[in-house]
Amino acid sequence: MTRKTVRIAMNGVTGRMGYRQHLVRSILALREAGGLDLGDGTVLWPEPILLGRREHALRRIAERHGLEHVSTDLDAVLADPRVDIYFDSQVTSAREEAVTKAIAAGKHIYTEKPTATSLAGALELARLAREKGVKHGVVQDKIFLPGLLKLKRLVDGGFFGRILSVRGEFGYWVFEGDWQPAQRPSWNYRAEDGGGIVVDMFPHWEYVLHELFGRVTSVQALATTHVPQRWDERGKPYDATADDAAYGIFELEGGAVAQINSSWAVRVNRDELVEFQVDGTEGSAVAGLRRCRAQHRSATPKPVWNPDVPATEVFRDQWQEVPDNGDFDNGFKAQWELFLRHVHTDAPYHWDLLAGARGVQLAELGLKSSVEGRRIDVPEISL
User: Fold this and answer.
1) What's the rounded Cα separation, in Å, for the pair 152 and 148?
2) What is the C-alpha to C-alpha distance for residues 372 and 369, in angstroms, rounded to an integer?
3) How many C-alpha atoms does 30 have within 13 Å on its Cβ side?
């Protein structure tokens, strides 16, 4: 075996997602496994360069995991010809400028979403990357979750017949920060810092719907701020200027309708923090992060509405568990492996900056729909 080092500048690893999912569960997990076997006698060895603004925080992470390379100088890191890939999981408002610099430096790009704060900015990144000839990918982690992989298996196998509707519920109660620390950073609730649940979650819903059921052709949304005041990381109160809940209806190519509620102000009364119910002419399924349950038309009971007597059926018991039929790796790691193969072997990969721009487009149009109180068509985009 020949070991080939791939140097990855990782910007934003002091954040929750950048540290836990991308550094620890993905890049460091690959190192613990001995690298990524490309199948041609070559093993890729990822060498992360921890990049950010707070050197002391970066050094703590580096010491914890035995890593060598730390920097607070983005320009210097991008000027290093030994750096192959630039990864970005910073706050959204800082991403567009940094990714633009990385493209100009000729680095391959892998980035969290949303890729920019506007559709124009997202399309410009995709255009710049294409013109520069660098490879580029956008994190679309939810389609790699075990529950959704099982759901996709049902879709691909024709289980549903004609798909009629998709209903999604996502969210949980994020503490305000006064009497218990919030589970999310305070910038998520400030519109001026790029916060808001529409900007955060509609890009996820775009690729989930697009990949499993069809392109979104229209959106009608209501975004609101249910909790107007929160407390930041220092315990100081601030006004929440960004939406913390959004209620969306999405028409899909082929005629199906999706309805997805997203909220950081909801207490969970479901099996998982996100669940999707899919109903079709031949069957239905409910999928979450890990589980997926299905009910075929031949096994569908015949409920009768009668409010005068207690329910005699336990409806949840009438669904069948969809088996794993395999081992599921961490979704972030699985996509990292695909992107690294794409960079080094030119393996197919379609979750690129243009796909990321579709997510930004849906968020932008969702917010416009909420302000204007109307349904808005979602045109196809291209470069």
Assistant:
1) 6
2) 5
3) 27
- d(CA 151, CA 168) in angstroms, rounded, equals 13
Which of 171, 254, 245 lies closest to 209 in space, CA to CA? 254
Nearest CA to 154 out of 145, 164, 163 is that of 163
Q: Alpha-carbon distance 383 to 132, whole Å?
A: 14
User: What is the 8-class DSSP label of residue 300?
Assistant: -
DSSP secondary-structure letter at 323? P
The predicted-structure confidence for 280-334, as pLDDT tens digits, reads as follows 999 999 999 999 999 999 999 988 888 898 888 889 999 999 999 989 999 999 9
Q: Which residue has the tokens 């707070």?
A: 54
Show Cβ contacts of residue 115 under 8 Å, excluding neighbours closer than 6 positions: 95, 96, 99, 121, 122, 125, 138, 353, 356, 357, 359, 360
Q: What is the pTM of this model?
A: 0.95
How far is the C-alpha of 330 from the C-alpha of 32, rounded, in Å?
14
Please report, as a single letter, which amino acid is at residue 212. L
CA dist., res. 263 & res. 266, Å (int): 6
